[in-house]
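Case study 2.
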Amino acid sequence: HEKVRMLTLLARKEDLSLESIVARDGELASYLERMSPQQRSVLSDPSLYTGIVIEKVRNVASHWKQELSL
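Prediction:
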């Protein structure tokens, strides 16, 4: 977590994408190689990252549908 935080600060400082910073960092190269194209795209455009929000929203909606007998 700390490593990624430091790399994001460096990317912002150097006005580069996080993906390019990670690519040149030897410590994370093996992780980058194992990432799918979709996972790598998040490094270029973090706004694409939704995490598990879809699953969480469905769980909350399901819970309240039962609670409210809808």
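DSSP finds five helices and no strands in the chain.
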